[in-house]
């Protein structure tokens, strides 16, 4: 009798993720979208270099594409927490498909201009910010809490596999015709849109009723005072996630560390493309190398869960930065193309381990009603340096050449590793990521609402908490 009672009271095990229909639709649709987007990521600098012959122009396009990650993270977080996340993602996919299709039409008509590429890239970057925040914030509402780390690891594997496929595909398709990679990108976004239409679960928890709208005046418009009140309320909501994040020293510090490393990785992406081009590599070979690097990242995602359960957070954060610093020194001073290519490929292995551990911790401690805004705040801190990295990469290449640019980036990564080692919140982070559903969610004690001590504050130099060469 007692055994029957025990069995009745037992918590049912959630089905494996591969049998979670909604998660698999979200996962597969995003995989196709990433393949198309990654193919265009390789094609854009090749296209700009072919049209203008200028590395700085390619860097400028990269800056414009990534600028929305700096400008719109906080407003996007408010929208993701206020609007229907699934509908946000659907609109983003539809509009991104239209932008890619406009590039195809301009190329076929022989009328493509640098300004057109920059405008499409800026709009697509803005929509990608919205889409990425909504997708990440939705994961805890689509999977069981005990499967959160596994779901994020699956997303990492998806991203790395899609990169492994998309990058050589982008180079190969560009060799067939300049418009072909953007045809693939258009189709990929439409497939992602179709998968979203088939998902049944909501992407956010039920929200309490919104406060009543201000009463309109006799002419049907809200009064000026009411409009000012709404503006202040929305501004307060916009910074709420940033305030919540900033008062948690570990999350704040890891976001700032990612900012510094992402500046390097975005610059390094352009450095590697120019290095390979100077060595005579064809577009297909450039895409193949970055695809192999993506495969190395996929291997990292397969073991990311094990590292997150085994290593303490401080060892993981400090170790990842020192591995990157060592590999950057090999890349810059190894004395040849192959050492640089091997070091660049190996750097991709570490990124997923960081992303799964830090991302799981952040999602576990963040309330659902704040999740979009906290993700946007961490993305602002971590990914705000990406557009600067693209611009810096182009300027370094124009001013100093490939090898000198790589040496400057190696010195920067060593400084980042030293900062991670000396940061007090990182040294005190002795926990591992909790995956047991019977255990309470991890919690980080908020810092006192005052300016941090100089030894606890890092000067920013991404989503997200993502830290990986891309």
Protein described:
It contains 18 helices and no strands. By secondary structure, it is an all-alpha fold.
SS-based structural class?
A: mainly alpha
User: What's the number of helices?
Assistant: 18
What is the helix content? over 70%
| Strands, total number | 0
Multimerization status: single chain
Mean pLDDT: 76
Largest sheet, in brief, is: none
Distance between the termini: 58 Å
A few lines on this structure:
It contains 18 helices and no strands. By secondary structure, the chain is mostly helical.
Give keywords:
disordered N terminus; mainly alpha; 470 residues
How do the strands and helices of this protein lay out in sequence?
Blueprint: H1 2-9, H2 21-52, H3 55-66, H4 68-71, H5 73-82, H6 85-109, H7 114-142, H8 148-176, H9 180-197, H10 224-246, H11 249-278, H12 283-310, H13 313-333, H14 337-365, H15 368-383, H16 386-400, H17 402-422, H18 424-427
């Amino acid at each position: 009798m007692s055994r029957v009672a025990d069995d009745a009271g037992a918590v049912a095990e959630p089905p494996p993720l591969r049998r979670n229909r909604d998660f698999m639709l979200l996962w597969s649709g995003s995989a196709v979208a990433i393949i198309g987007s990654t193919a265009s990521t390789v094609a854009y600098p090749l296209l700009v270099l072919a049209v203008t012959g200028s590395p700085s122009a390619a860097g400028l396009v990269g800056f414009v594409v990534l600028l929305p990650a700096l400008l719109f993270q906080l407003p996007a977080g408010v929208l993701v927490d206020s609007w229907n996340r699934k509908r946000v993602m659907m609109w983003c996919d539809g509009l991104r498909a239209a932008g890619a299709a406009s590039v195809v039409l301009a190329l076929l008509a022989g009328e493509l201009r640098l300004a057109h590429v920059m405008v499409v890239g800026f709009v697509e970057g803005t929509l990608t910010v919205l889409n990425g925040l909504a997708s990440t914030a939705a994961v805890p509402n689509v999977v069981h809490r005990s499967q959160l780390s596994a779901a994020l690891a699956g997303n990492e594997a998806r991203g790395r596999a899609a990169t492994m496929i998309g990058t050589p595909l982008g180079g190969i398709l560009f060799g067939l015709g300049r418009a072909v990679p953007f045809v693939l990108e258009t189709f990929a976004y439409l497939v992602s849109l179709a998968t979203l239409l088939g998902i049944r679960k909501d992407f956010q928890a039920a929200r309490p009723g919104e406060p009543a709208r201000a009463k309109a005046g006799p002419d049907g418009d809200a009064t000026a005072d009411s409009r000012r009140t709404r503006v202040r309320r929305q501004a307060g909501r916009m910074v709420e996630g940033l305030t919540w994040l900033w008062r948690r020293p570990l999350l704040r510090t890891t976001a700032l560390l990612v900012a510094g490393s992402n500046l390097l990785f975005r610059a390094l992406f352009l450095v590697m493309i120019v290095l390979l081009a100077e060595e005579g590599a064809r577009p297909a070979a450039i895409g193949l190398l970055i695809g192999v690097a993506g495969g190395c990242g996929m291997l990292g995602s397969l073991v990311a869960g094990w590292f997150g359960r085994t290593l303490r957070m401080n060892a993981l954060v400090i170790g990842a930065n020192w591995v990157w610093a060592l590999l950057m020194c090999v890349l810059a001073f190894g004395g040849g193309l192959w050492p640089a290519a091997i070091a660049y490929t190996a750097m991709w292995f570490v990124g997923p381990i960081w992303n799964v551990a830090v991302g799981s911790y952040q999602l576990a401690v963040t309330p659902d009603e704040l999740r979009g805004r906290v993700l946007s705040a961490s993305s602002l801190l971590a990914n705000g340096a990406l557009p600067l990295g693209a611009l810096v990469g182009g300027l370094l290449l124009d001013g100093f050449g490939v090898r000198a640019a790589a040496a400057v980036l190696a010195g920067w990564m060593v400084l980042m590793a030293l900062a991670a080692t000396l940061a007090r919140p990182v040294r005190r982070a002795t926990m591992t990521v909790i995956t047991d559903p019977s255990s309470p969610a991890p919690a980080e004690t908020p810092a006192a609402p005052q300016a941090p001590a100089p030894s606890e504050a890092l000067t920013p130099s991404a989503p997200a908490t993502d830290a990986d060469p891309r």
